[in-house]
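Q: I'm writing up a methods section and want to include an example of the input and output format. Could you take the sequence below and give the corresponding predicted structure tokens, formatted cleanly so I can copy it straight into the document?
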Amino acid sequence: MIEKPLQPSRRDFLKKSAIFGTLSILPAHIALGQTSGGKQAPSQQVRLAVVGIGNQGGRDLKTMADSGHCTVVALCDVDLNGKHTREAQAAHPKAKKFQDFRVMFDKMADEIDAVLIATPDHSHFCVTMLAMSLGKHVYVEKPLAHTFGQCDRLMALAEKSGVVTQMGNQGHSGGNYFQYKAWVDAGVINNVTRITAYMNSPRRWHGWGSNVKEYPSQPIPKGMDWDTWICSAPEHPFSDKLHPQEWRSWYDYGSGAFGDWGPHILDTSHRFLNLGLPSSIEAVKRSGANPLVFPQESTIKFKFPARGDMPACDVTWLDGVKNMAKPEKELGELNVKKPGKLIYGKDLTFHGGSHSDVLQVVPREKFMEIRKDLPRISGKNSNHYENFLLACKGEEEARSPFSVGGPLTQVFTLGILAQRFGGTIDFDRETNKVTNNEMAQALLDPAPRKGWEEFYKL
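A: Here is the clean output for your methods example:
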């Protein structure tokens, strides 16, 4: 039988919600027994809980554990019998195990300093909100959340709670991060007016997604907590077209190729060019469009207005196996089969990949001409996981906090609305509202599933 949250603790939790009054969050250094500076002393181990321990979560867990900066005290997954969760459980036999994150916090909140959250996109929000409300530092896989409104709430509570936050776009601690910042600061990257980003590898829904008319249904595996897996999202029956991993194909649970790869390709451009939110998003192409599943191919064009002394910038995203970017011939032979981007400035054009891949000035003849004047990036830096744990200990600042990852994710949520509905979506950057599509506006911040409202009122 699946153990559900302890009722006294649930009542205490609900009292913290807006239904019962203003949420009271203990300062991090009091809640976690930390130093007066608000972070753990460098000599201490971060006591880490992990929610979502299979596949990407298992890889995240291994890297954090191998860093030497944390002790894994709890593992939580709705499918502890699943093959994809067994390796993590075997690797940490002393960690307490849970199926429901609410039960985990009910029973051992005082034994947890930080939480790694690597559940499907649609369930990031509830776990993260509860963790932050209890004063826990949080590392959340990308994209940060599933809707525009969820991102707003996460950013607000992160600021209020004062905990360390990090979104899991791992390249934001790699070579591309440090190079892009240095090149913008030095004026090498300047006056960017357009960016083309692309990811053309096969996706899970390719081939079958355009023909789907309803969610399939299969028996729930023995011991799996399907209700908690659904979390606050719309309810659909279990099937192996949802779990494990297949959830990314569906609008109600995943974020498609754009939400999956955009955080690894467009993160540094969004941050260091101060792009913010777009004024319009056009679905230029939607091959194999389906109301339930992401298109087989899509091209989305964003218009970002001028920011200070930076000019207006158009960002075009392409996905789908044959929907390839077509670089200008004068840029030379470029490999656009790998995920990446082209960045067009006033005087220079740059070609880059994803994650930590550094930019190249193209064509090569132009690079050879200016190479001696380009800023050099040197020094050993912590990786993204170490950066988070060291930030928990007060030794570094997190490089992709919610104040950075939140607006970036909101761009993806707007792009996904264009993929879903087609046409052009006009977005008011002052009011954060869609002005020409009522259905898209409603999906900026849809109501949670009945029984999960409390997380939206923290």
